Amino acid sequence: LVQSLDQRAREAEILRAAGTSINATLDSQEAIQRIIEQMARVVPHDSASVQLRRGDRTEIIGCRGFSSANEVIGRDMAISGNPLHEAIYHYAKPVCIAETTGLSGFYGVPEYTIRSWLGLPLLFRGEVIGMLTLDSALPHHFSADHVRMGLAFASEVAVVLEHIRLYQQALSARARLTILHQAIPEITALSLMPEQVYRAIHATVGRLMPADAFVISLLRAERSIVEHVYMADSGGVWPRRESVWEHSFTEYLVQRGTTLRYGDVAEVKGYQFVRFGALRATRSGLAVLLRGSGGPLGLLFAQSYAPAAYSLEDQELLELLAAHVATALESAARFADLDRLATTDALTGLANRRHFMDLAWLETTRSQRYQHPLSFILFDIDNFKALNDRFGHLVGDEVLQK
Fold this sequence. Notes:
The chain is an alpha+beta fold.
């Protein structure tokens, strides 16, 4: 009994020291290194790995005992179809194999043959976020005490890794919001120069999230035509293009009324994408409506060559950017209308006297500077007053229009 109590006390002290060490940093790489170091104190082994879940795959983010660690780190393996991974990830159970001879599915270590293996789930709030694996060149190496100690250590590791993930996520969110807040005034200031606005929007989105391809589509007033005013991919910026509204992706998104975020393009059907640019097809996408005061103006559409590239946070950021972009576009349209009204005759659609005087001053100044001759041609309608007096001003207006 005394020996057993002493053993438990030693184990408790090892776990306490290991937990203190890995809890002392919020830097992910340093934390992984400390986890690897402390694992050797908790459960003796020849090689080990720290892995995290990435969808239906498990990725090695740290390892020990491998001569080519750089080749091992970053390696990912399927969970489904692998009995060991399924037992750990799907059922949150440790797996201890006393003798691996004759079994398949182990990542080989060049220096020795793995004879026994221990896999431990990293469990956080009921969800398996990853696993620890330990190998030994000796058969029957891992005991029940090793499993118990390993599980206790794995619980501590799961909490640390999740806290680091949340901390880094908060830092990333703060940095991305800073980028967004810095970009919005620039986009607003450029609103009178559409092409520069489109490029500024694309550049901002590229700093916030994957944007291997990016499209800005705007609706024409009559809503029969969609104008793709900005289309860019890895091959550069491509000429703008028009497409019909009916059965278009823009029509689908407007009728849907909400953002579309998809992990694989094969999931989305029933409408026509506009094909452009490089031959390489994108896999995932994030499309957000541009909502004006009078209804939808168009959409922003970010795409990635990788599957499942966009998160809920990406969606919220692009929606926030889209709200400011829509305001800038509406302001630019109103300014263009006011400018057109100020320089255009409402009856004929021709430039008015104010616009003529502005251009006359500009051309006169240019002529004087470069010593070029300048001429004006004046057209007048003979006896137009008599036309108005005889037939009335409405007829006179029609004559002017024609």
